């Protein structure tokens, strides 16, 4: 694994930073580093928070960052000598792009001088990588949005966006896991539940996973909602090599 630069940010937290551009290789290195830290220092840490090129480590009040830094360097050096593989999953996410849910899809089409159908085709044809979760619990920042769908965020955020809404913000696409204010362009909605604290892993997708959007009609959206409520819906999820 590539070695990061380690900074002490507070007496009980550290900040790891990787050089270079945002890339899948860097994100996978950060994911592997996260897993190494979580497995070796479970008694020391409160939380590990990854992003595109950084990783924040929050320590328990009894653990001091200076002493922890030395232990961390030793573990990361040893881990760099091993081939650390992580399991990634491909999750197919059904999305209804109907204008009833895609409140900004026409605006996105207008911005790119194309049809709504073209927006749907472009958005659902791509394969996205979950770079990290942030902003809201379970909100996946997805890398891989085609350049001809890059759209500036709205100048005035909405006070409420429904859970399951799929949006475009700049060079990214993402899914709102819960009702929230937001400034992304909403182009559709998924009937799936993306964050549930009653589950062992509350987030439906994890950093490093792959996401493929599958267009569905309004009636299928409602049918999936009913299947989820009845406990009969089967999520399309498989290991991605």
UniProtKB/TrEMBL annotation:
> Which UniProt keywords are given for this protein, alphabetically ordered?
ATP-binding, Hydrolase, Nucleotide-binding
Its Enzyme Commission number(s) read 3.5.2.9
> So which domain of life are we looking at?
Bacteria
Q: Name one GO molecular function term.
A: ATP binding
Establish whether keyword ATP-binding is in the entry: yes
Q: Where does the signal sequence lie? A: none
What would be one Pfam family of this protein?
Answer: CT_C_D
Q: Where is the Carboxyltransferase domain?
A: 4-205
- Please name the SMART domains in this protein's record: AHS1 (SM00796)
Can you say what this protein is called? Answer: 5-oxoprolinase subunit PxpB
- Biological source species: Rasiella rasia
- Gene (UniProt): pxpB
